[in-house]
Amino acid sequence: MGLGTTAKKLQTVTEMAEKLYTKVDELRTQVNEVKTHVEATSNRVERIERDLDEQRAILDALAEEQGIDVDERVAEATIREAEPDHAADADAASEESTSTDGTGTDGTAEAGQ
Fold it and tell me: Where is the composition biased (Low complexity) (predicted)?
C-alpha cells in the first residue's frame, strides 16, 4: 500500500470526522433549544395552573354565595357531554323550568336583592 492510498484514506476519514462533528454540534444546538422550550413551557403551565386555582377559588366562593352546588352542576355537565343525543332534550326542559316568569329565573326572589 502506497503513501497516496494512505493519504487518500486519511483525507476521507478526516472529512467524515468533520461531517460528524458538524452533525453533533447541530444536535447539541437543537437539544439546547428543545430544553429551553420545555423549560419555558413548564413555566407557562405552572403559571396557568396557579391562575386556574385562583379562578376556581373565586368561582367556588361566588357559587357558594349564590347557593349554587358546583359539584352537582359539574356532574350534570358531564352527563350531558356523555349523552349528546339527550342534551338537546335536557336543555329544552331546563329552559322551560327555569324561565317560568320570562326573566330567565325560576321566579323566586332571594333576600337582599
Answer: 95-113
Query: pLDDT per position in the chain (113 positions), as tens?
Result: 567 788 899 999 999 999 999 999 999 999 999 999 999 999 999 999 999 999 999 999 999 999 999 899 999 999 999 886 654 555 666 665 554 444 444 444 444 43
* Residues composing the chain: 113
Give the residue carrying C-alpha cell 433549544.
33
Q: What are phi and psi of 103, to 5 degrees?
A: -105, 0
Whether 98 and 107 have beta carbons less than 8 Å apart is answered as no
105 touches 99 (CB < 8 A): yes
What residues does each domain of the chain span? Answer: 3-96
Residues 6 or more apart whose CB falls under 8 angstroms from that of 59 comprise 70
